[in-house]
Amino acid sequence: MLAGMSLRHQAGRAVRRVRRSIEPTAPPPTIDGQQPLVGHDTVDVRKLLDTYTVDELSEAADDYYRKNLDGVDYYYAKPVGNIDEAPDLLICFAQVLAGVRPIRGMRVLDFGAGTGWTSRMLTQLGCEVVVCDVSATALDIAAEMFERLPVAGDQPAPTFLRWDGFRFDLDDESIDRIFCIDAFHHVPNPAAVLAEMGRVLKPGGVAGFQEPGPNHSKTAQSQFEMKQFTVIENDIIMDNIDEWGRAAGFTDLRLAVFTSDQFQTSIEGYNDFLAGGVTRTHLYEHMLPFVGERRIFFLSKGERATADSRERRGLDARLEIHLDAGPIGAGTAIVGHATATNTGTTHWLASDAVQGPVLIGVHLLDAEGKYLDRDYTRIPLPRGSGGGVASGEAVAFDFELAAPESPGDYQLEFDLVAEHVAWFEMNGVPTTLLPLVVT
Predict the structure, then answer these.
(1) Are strands 333-342 and 394-402 parallel, antiparallel or unpaired?
(2) Could you tell me if 297 and 254 are in contact, meaning their C-beta atoms sit under 8 angstroms apart?
(3) Which of its termini does the chain have fewer beta carbons within 10 Å around, N or C?
(4) Three-state SS for 86?
(5) pLDDT grade, residue 13 (50/70/90)?
(6) CA torsion 134→140→146→148, rounded to 10°?
(7) Which residue, among 417, 416, 412, has the nearest Cα to 323 in the 3D structure?
(8) DSSP letters along 297-337, please?
(9) Around Cβ 51, how many Cβ atoms within 10 Å?
């Protein structure tokens, strides 16, 4: 069962009443700091997998959503449905987001998306999201959520894809990034799913996962879900993930080490931590239970593609500007000469690119340095290597821009800008400020 069934953790009032009725009155033993084990009638997830087909498990997932439609407003509220789960959902999502780093314009497969809260966030980032789940009902809820809570700005519209449990209806190497939040441990055929992910992911792509740990199937909540809803609650064994991933064409596996359970200390303890004292050991001990029961990991398919100007990180430059001397009449052309050198680690996309193009931006100031027009004009860069400007490359060119319509003393400030991403000055790149006298 897929993603959607991750919503088991937020079942409605009726489910909570059932949960209370079966919880033991005395705390039984725990496994690695996780939830208590239930009694002697333990469900073996392997027997559950032998009992039901993939199609039957898929139907059970859809049935779960159909039976919980009276609590649909909760789904629309995720990830801030309640304070008990919101910090963990947001922090874990942020960890996967940071590891995968989908940038504007990328096509992202949100596998096991359930009712789509993660898909909505990825869409807001400017990604073209494929919202994928085994449950048609969950996808209907997700589509309705996008209607009720539209994203801000002109973002790519999501597409909705029902997963049949075996194969994505997607072309080979058609996806830039894959997200999987609390869903992979529900699939009955994990090796086959990873093989499909490897098929549709482009070279240089990354798949990020947030899943439980190696004893998950034995915890009380997992036992409850398997008994009550026929949910698959697999244990996540990283050696298996590594083996299956390599067979699927993935070349690297990395795990994130963190905790969503906040660690607090006194000011003395904080200073001790900064000084390398015993508080660092306390933090390590605090993290162990979370790290033991959670797996946030990333599978890469070859070397990651070179980052480009659709993201701010890595943007750096040296910009040289010279203007021709002589009187400038109001509204006439100013002739200049520019050399822009890409001293950063990212590739600058061409000035006519749809997402993240790099241009010279010009601010107009008065003689005292007061901004009159922060977006006075843009100057496109010529194409260099790869259609834009590669890291380490310089482009030199002449340009013209119109002088202000009114005579007076001005200043022109030149900066580079990755449109809708960042001004290079924000990354510490010096601007060029030149005086201008208009007659």
Answers:
(1) antiparallel
(2) yes
(3) C
(4) helix
(5) very low
(6) -150
(7) 412
(8) EEEE-SSPPPPBTTSSTT--EEEEEEE--S-B-TT-EEEEE
(9) 10
Distance set, CA 105 to CA 2, 7, 64, 108, 356 (Å)? 26, 29, 34, 9, 9
> Cis peptide leading into 79, omega within 30 of 0?
yes
State which fold the 3-300 domain adopts. Rossmann fold (3.40.50)
Rounded to an integer, what distance in angstroms lies between the CA atom of residue 118 and that of residue 111? 10
The answer to whether the CB of 212 falls within 8 A of the CB of 8 is no
The tokens of 259 are what? 């905790």
Residue 46: C-alpha distances to residues 18, 52, 80, 218 (Å):
25, 10, 34, 12
Give me 94's structure tokens: 């942020």
Strands (E), 127-251: 128-133, 159-162, 175-181, 201-212
| DSSP 8-class letter at 196 | H
Nearest by Cα to 131 from 82, 88, 170: 170
d(CA 155, CA 431): 31
Q: What is the mean pLDDT of the chain?
A: 88
Tokens of 4: 């959607």
Judge whether 54 and 165 are in contact, CB under 8 Å: yes
Contacts of 153 (CB under 8 A, 6+ apart): none
User: Is the C-alpha dihedral spanning 103, 105, 108, 110 positive or negative?
Assistant: positive
Contact 325, 348 (CB under 8 A): no
C-alpha span between 293 and 215 (Å, rounded) = 7
Note the pLDDT of residue 192: 96
Quickly tell me which residue has 């500007």 as its tokens.
321
The pTM score is: 0.81
Tokens read off for 285: 């001990």
CATH number of 317-438: 2.60.40.10
**Cα distances (Å, whole numbers) of residue 170 to 54, 164, 249:** 20, 12, 17
The DSSP H or E segment spanning 60 is helix 54-67
Q: Could you give the residue range(s) of every CATH 2.60.40.10 domain in the chain? A: 317-438
The helix or strand, by DSSP H or E, that contains position 337, with its residue range, turns out to be: strand 333-342
**pLDDT tens figures, 210-269:** 999 999 988 888 898 888 888 888 999 999 999 999 999 999 999 999 999 999 999 999
Which residues of the chain does CATH 3.40.50.150 include?
A: 3-300
Q: Rounded to the nearest 5 degrees, what angle is found at the Cα of 339, between the Cα atoms of 344 and 306?
A: 25
Residue in 62, 61, 65 with CA at minimum distance from that of residue 230: 61
Integer Cα distance of 224 and 233 in angstroms = 10
The H-or-E segment that residue 268 falls in is helix 267-274
> 287, 288, 269, 289: which is closest to 279 by C-alpha?
269
Distance CA 222, CA 250 (A): 29
